[in-house]
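Severity: low
Component: inverse-folding endpoint
Summary: output formatting inconsistent between runs
Steps to reproduce: submit the following structure tokens with default settings.
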């Protein structure tokens, strides 16, 4: 019961954060666009997709530093409630350019707090959005950072496709209704125009 109450409180706080948070500052027409993949085929009662939008760094001495904000939306397509982690795991993450060339992934220093994972309960026929990009890594200048699954990629102006697979193993300390499965997410198409002058 304690876990369920904590999870429900987390959902309420998270929902308030997502609804009340101000949108990223528009970047000459490209920062105000939310780019979405198609909803995946349901796996064990859950469907998901990625949402991506470009935002400026909030660090005042890096006015041209850009990152892609990434939200994982999960939708419960069954009648019974499902519990999902606030820190989902991704595998087979790749970003390819217009020539189908794979962008290299690299580790990057992280700074700042690292929140502990929590369980969020999604009622039947409801959905939840959780931010999943690496917000504690430094941002370079002149490119757009995509940080997901412990690695970063830097995008130069061009067109790209982002792909990932969502996976969740059974957690013995988690709730009984936790979602377990492997789900291939639909790609998200990006067109990065370059930093604002």
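Observed output (run 2 of 3):
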């Amino acid at each position: 019961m304690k876990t369920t109450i904590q999870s429900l409180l987390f959902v309420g706080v998270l929902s308030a954060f997502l609804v009340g948070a101000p949108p990223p500052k528009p970047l000459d027409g490209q920062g105000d666009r939310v780019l979405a993949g198609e909803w995946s085929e349901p796996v064990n009662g859950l469907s998901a997709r990625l949402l991506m939008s470009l935002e400026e760094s909030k660090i005042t001495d890096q006015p041209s530093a850009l990152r892609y904000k990434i939200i994982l939306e999960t939708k419960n397509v069954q009648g019974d409630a499902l519990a999902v982690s606030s820190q989902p795991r991704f595998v087979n993450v790749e970003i390819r350019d217009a020539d189908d060339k794979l962008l290299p992934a690299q580790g990057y220093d992280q700074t700042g707090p690292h929140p502990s994972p929590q369980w969020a309960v999604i009622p039947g026929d409801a959905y939840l959005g959780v931010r999943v990009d690496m917000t504690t890594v430094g941002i370079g200048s002149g490119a757009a950072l995509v940080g997901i699954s412990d690695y970063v990629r830097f995008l130069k102006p061009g067109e790209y496709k982002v792909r990932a697979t969502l996976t969740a193993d059974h957690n013995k300390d988690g709730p009984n209704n936790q979602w377990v499965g492997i789900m291939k997410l639909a790609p998200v198409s990006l067109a990065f125009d370059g930093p604002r002058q």
